[in-house]
Each structure stands twice: as structure tokens, then as C-alpha cells.
Write a structure and sequence with these properties.
Strand content: 15-25%
Organism: Flavobacterium aquaticum
Helix content: 25-40%
Radius of gyration: 24 Å
Function: GTPase that plays an essential role in the late steps of ribosome biogenesis.
Pfam family, one: MMR_HSR1
Distance between the termini: 33 Å
Bound molecules: guanosine-5'-diphosphate
Subunit structure: Associates with the 50S ribosomal subunit.
Shape: globular
Structural class: alpha/beta
InterPro entries: G_ENGA, GTP-bd, GTPase_Der, KH_dom-like, KH_dom-like_a/b, P-loop_NTPase, Small_GTP-bd
Length: 435
């Protein structure tokens, strides 16, 4: 997917615009799967072209007294990581010094930049908007985030300027694609180095679907896999700022491009907000997930047992808790083989197909014993179910009154399914539909 970053100073209406972009699609997705919506990252689609959107502003807390330097770094990161940048300004305020700062950075960039003048709610504002030509970014789009006017033209242009994605040629037996993600200093590079070594058994370099994500094929401990490397991890100097935004921005492309995400966390710091953001990013993209608690060599084992540690993490990632958690050390090379084995297992779990007859044989008696609770005196009958032929596990249950099936029952079904089949580390979708 192409990645579009929305930048601009606080309170210009970035999040309203962001919500508008992801709404059309997400509203549909959310209502059936019950996925929690992320404030800052979502998928959008226009004229049949899908892209990911990141609202950089959503990651800034207390955005009123935001430092200029902060915005600057955000814009720089967006320039590095995104395929197109939407720069939002506010017609009520006119051009501010901060807008000029941002424009200065953007003028040097080769990537598509779209200047959006927001809050253009009437004809007078339309005249005021003209001053934004002075930013030196060329033609602008005036929109009203409130009413949505002007968004259509903007989106037409946006999907037109997004780079073409090369066709992904499916291999006959595709190798698992893994990515290693985590916040700065969690030990990602150390883990990768410990795993593949300096000698790097590189078989081939396959250019990925985008300029930045590169698959490199490895053979380690008898496992063949592709490691998705991003320029972000490979090339960039360490980011000092320990902000949620950086981790997410740096992980999006790698996560979208992989099958299984190895989320490295720093044992000495625990599972924190940033780790959670990356976890939900992977979950939202329906990728396999393995959590690697790194630097376990540094943890005093008397005070913190693996069991306590594991329980804490599972609390943080609820309700999707069926995820392998391993305690490793990139430094002493502890359990690296296990980490790889688990990643391959999660990949297989995610690929598995359950035959419709077996699935019905198993699930229908469970449903019969515990049917969905009747609603408004109406009984809900489920007669038939099946796994859909989708890349990620999705199951559909055909019912007379699917709209009456509530989330707790969905979770009950999901738990039963996970008890019977190994979907460890794999997000699954369950739908109820009219036969
Ligand atoms: P990255 O930013 O996630 O790629 O993190 P690095 O791999 O650069 O590691 C950050 C720091 O943690 C470095 O100083 C590493 O030497 C150290 N480190 C990484 N893994 C371990 C580990 O398993 N144990 C210990 N004690 N230190 C580690």
C-alpha cells in the first residue's frame, strides 16, 4: 500500500480530515468485525485505489503548546517514510510562521505534496485562500473538513499522484515474510544481527512492492524466510525521541508488507504505550504476531518470573491474547531458534484452511449447546458455517437473524475456535450473515 501522511500545525483540522478519509471504508469494516478504530492510522480507498493514511498530529499530546521543533521532526519523518504528503493549513488563521517553516521543508521534497486549505466554508473564505499561493507549493485545494466539500477533487488528485504499485508476483510456495518491529533501542538490530549473523546467508535480493521495503531471503536453522527490511531500520540514524509517532511511522510499511511481525520489546522497560501502538497496527492489518521480550539477560529472575511478566503483557493486549510471548536475549543469543520456529508456526497457523464439513461438525454442536441468546423474543438459529477463502482467517456463520448476534457471543465463538484449532498469534475475523 501507498502511505499518505497528513502534516500541519495543531488545530488546523487534520484529524477531522483524517476521519473523513478513513470513514467510508472503516465504517463498513468496523460494523462487521468490531475492530477498534485507531485514531491515527487507517486505510482509505478512492477510485478503486487503496492507501494507508497517517495523521501525524494525532500522536502529539497537549497539542496547543507544541514545540516548533517537534512539528519539524514530524514533517521530516513523514517526508522519509510516506509516499505522498498532505499539508493542511487553516484559512481562518492565514499563513503562520510555522506554516512557512513546514512549507520550506516540503518545497525541497521530490514526493507528491498536496496543499490543503481547510475551513473554506463560504465564498469569502475562498478569496482569503488565495494567499496560500505564497507558500510556494503551487496549486492548493480548498476544502471544508466540516461539510466535506472539496474532498472529492482532492482525493482524485491524490490517487492520481500516488506512485504505481508494482504487481506482486505470487510465488508458488511463498516464503514467510517476517518483519522485526519495536520502539527504538528495544534491540531490533541486535536481534536481526544475532539471527542472521554478519555473514548473512543471502540467497537473493528481491525488490519488494515498494521502493523502501525490501525482502531479503534467508536460510537459518533450516528455515527459509524473507526478512522485510525497511530503509527506516537499515539506513537511518537512531531516533533519540522516544515518541509513539516514530515507532508507528517507521513500522507501517514493514508491517503492511509482511505476514508475521516479530514485536521486540525491551524487558527492562516493560510493555508500554508505544509497544501497544505497534501491536495494534499489526493486529489491525491482520498480520501474525510474536512478542519477543528481549534483554531477558538483564532481568533479575527472582523479582520477575516469566509467568508474571507474560500475564502483564496479556492484560495489555486483551482481548486478543492468544499470542506467543518469548523471552529472549539478542546479546547472549538465548532462544533465537525458538523465536524463529514460533514465527514459522504462526505463519502456518495463519495459512491453515479448515474443511467446511469438519468445521460444521465441530462448531454446530457447540452452537447447539450454547446458542446465541434470544433477542426481543426471537430465537437466533445458526445452520451452517465455513471458512472463507481469504488470505487471513475469516469465518462466516449463516443465521436467520445475524444482526441480533452480539459481540460477547462472537468472542465466545472465537474462543471455542481457538481452543479447537491452533490460531496462536493470528487475528481472526468472524462474521454472521443471512443465509
Ligand atoms: P534497535 O534500536 O531496536 O535496533 O536496538 P539495538 O539493537 O540498537 O539495541 C539497543 C541497545 O540495547 C544496544 O546498546 C544493544 O547492545 C542493547 N541490547 C540489545 N539486545 C540486548 C540484549 O538481549 N541484552 C542486553 N543486555 N542488551 C541488549
Amino acid at each position: 500500500n501507498n502511505i499518505v501522511a497528513i502534516v500541519g500545525r495543531p488545530n488546523v483540522g487534520k484529524s477531522t480530515f483524517f476521519n473523513r478519509l478513513i470513514q467510508r471504508r472503516e465504517a463498513i469494516v468496523d460494523s462487521v468485525s468490531g475492530v477498534t478504530r485507531d485514531r491515527n492510522y487507517g486505510k482509505s480507498e478512492w477510485n478503486g485505489k487503496e492507501f494507508s493514511v497517517i495523521d501525524t498530529g494525532g500522536y502529539i499530546k497537549g497539542s496547543d503548546d507544541i514545540f516548533e521543533g517537534e512539528i519539524r521532526r514530524q514533517v521530516e519523518l513523514a517526508i522519509d517514510e510516506a509516499d505522498a504528503i498532505v499539508f493542511v493549513v487553516d484559512v481562518e488563521e492565514g499563513i503562520t510562521p510555522m506554516d512557512e517553516e513546514v512549507a520550506k521543508l516540503l518545497r525541497k521534497v521530490k514526493k507528491p505534496i498536496l496543499l490543503v486549505v481547510n475551513k473554506v466554508d463560504n465564498a469569502m473564505r475562498e478569496k482569503d485562500a488565495v494567499e496560500f499561493y505564497n507558500l510556494g507549493l503551487g496549486e492548493y485545494f480548498s476544502i471544508s473538513g466540516m461539510s466535506g466539500s472539496g474532498t472529492g477533487e482532492l482525493l482524485d488528485k491524490l490517487v492520481e499522484v500516488l506512485p504505481e504499485m508494482p504487481e506482486v508476483t505470487e510465488e508458488v510456495e511463498p516464503l514467510p515474510r517476517f518483519c522485526v518491529v519495536g520502539r527504538p533501542n528495544a534491540g531490533k538490530s541486535s536481534f536481526i544481527n544475532a539471527l542472521i549473523g554478519e555473514d548473512r546467508f543471502v540467497v537473493t535480493d528481491i525488490a519488494g512492492t515498494t521502493r523502501d521495503a525490501i525482502d531479503t531471503k534467508y536460510n537459518r536453522f533450516g528455515f527459509e524466510f524473507n526478512l522485510v527490511d525497511t530503509a527506516g531500520i537499515r539506513r537511518k540514524a537512531k531516533v533519540k525521541e522516544d515518541l509513539e509517532f516514530y515507532s508507528v511511522m517507521r513500522s507501517v510499511r514493514a508491517i503492511e508488507h509482511s505476514d508475521v511481525c516479530l514485536l521486540v520489546i525491551d524487558a527492562t522497560r516493560g510493555f508500554e504505550g508505544q509497544d501497544q501502538s505497534i501491536f495494534w497496527l499489526a493486529e489491525k492489518n491482520r498480520k501474525g504476531i510474536v512478542i519477543l521480550v528481549n534483554k531477558w539477560d538483564l532481568v533479575e529472575k527472582d523479582t520477575m518470573s516469566t509467568r508474571d511478566y507474560e500475564r502483564k503483557i496479556r492484560e495489555e493486549i486483551a482481548p486478543f491474547t492468544d499470542v506467543p510471548i518469548l523471552f529472549i536475549s539478542a546479546l547472549t543469543k538465548q532462544r533465537l531458534l525458538k523465536a524463529l520456529e514460533t514465527a514459522v508456526e504462526v505463519f502456518e497457523n495463519r495459512k491453515q484452511r479448515i474443511s467446511t464439513s469438519k468445521f460444521n461438525e465441530l462448531m454446530l454442536p457447540i452452537i447447539e449447546a450454547t446458542p446465541p441468546p434470544a433477542l426481543k423474543g426471537k430465537y437466533i438459529k445458526i445452520k451452517y458455517c465455513m471458512q472463507l477463502p481469504t488470505p487471513t482467517p475469516q469465518f462466516v456463520f449463516f443465521a436467520n437473524l445475524p444482526q441480533y448476534v452480539k459481540d460477547p457471543y462472537k468472542r465466545f465463538i472465537e474462543n471455542k475456535l481457538r481452543e479447537q484449532y491452533n490460531f496462536s498469534g493470528v487475528p481472526i475475523d468472524i462474521y454472521f450473515r443471512q443465509k
